[in-house]
Amino acid sequence: MRWQDFRTSSNVEDRRGMGMAGGGGLGIGAMVILGLVGWALGIDPRILIGGAEMMTGGGSGYQQQQQGRQGAPQDEAGRFAAAILGNTEDVWNTVLPQQANRQYQAPKLVLFSGQTRSGCGGAQSAMGPFYCPLDQTVYIDLSFFEEMKSRFRAGGDFAYAYVLAHEVGHHVENQLGILPRVQERQQQVSKAEGNQLSVRVELMADCLAGVWAHHSDQRWKSLEQGDIEEAIRAAEAIGDDRLQKQSQGRVVPDSFTHGSSEQRMRWLTTGLKTGQVQACDTFRASRL
After folding, report:
1. Residue 43: how many CA atoms within 13 Å on its side-chain side?
2. CA–CA distance, 99 with 3 (Å, rounded to integer)
3. Domain membership of residue 200 as a residue range
4. Closest CA to 3 of 199, 204, 230
5. 3-class SS at 111?
6. What is the pLDDT of residues 145-199, one digit of tens each?
């Protein structure tokens, strides 16, 4: 992927090496355990961790968030993340007004190592990258890219860019008003129905990542041979069915929160082929 020519975003905060700010809160062991419990039960681990922090008095939100270094980092991994974020800004600044009649307001990106705080509670690297709608920020420990390469055999620049673009896709969903409506609805339905809503949210974000890549390639010729295959391998590797089969030897579809490997690959490909936000409407799709 030709990312070196992308404009780097200034909406980056580098907290790597800073640890967790503020007193109290959960220890790293408790956070890992809650993350595993949430994954096994099909519950977003950030909800469990955030709730536990509030119970222990450690999650006072914005007041305890530390401030990291602002602007584009100087190391290659940090520069890559800042460049991908900058390119998503350039794409969505054009595409969202054109296709959805909405002005795009870019999210922040926080780079951290180990653990940090977010507007949604504690963040721990074992949870993987995530988007917090409360502070409109994407959080990522860049060691996740190494995990993709070693654990999931899904390495490569475009595979890593897909992960970041997926989280930015959640920000687009938030700007379209989809995330608040889904979260409200999840409070009113069963756990299985709530999981199904989560799957639709995640598959839409996969598709929106594809929309970004489509327009980035059209304008900047950013994709190289093999890039699309990299992203599709990544989408396949992190499907709920694949992860459940690896961890527990069986698949429980009712507990899916992100979608199967086949679904994730198909929706990413839909965005790549069409470049249309409307094509990503998983909530009206007859087939997920």
Report:
1. 16
2. 25
3. 12-280
4. 230
5. strand
6. 999 999 889 999 999 999 999 999 999 999 999 999 999 999 999 999 999 999 9
4 found inside a domain:
no
The answer to whether 79 touches 109, Cβ cutoff 8 Å, is: no
What type of residue is 136? Q
287, part of any domain? no
Residue 77 CB neighbours (<10 A):
15
Supply 112's token pair.
């951290």
Quick: pLDDT tens for 15-68.
998 866 543 444 444 444 445 445 444 445 554 444 443 333 344 344 344 678
Query: Total structural domains in the chain?
Result: 1
Flag whether 244 is in a domain: yes
**φ, ψ of residue 69 in degrees (nearest 5):** -75, 130
Q: Are 118 and 135 in contact (CB under 8 A)?
A: yes
Q: What's the pTM value of the predicted model, to 2 decimals?
A: 0.84
Residue 92 lies in a domain: yes
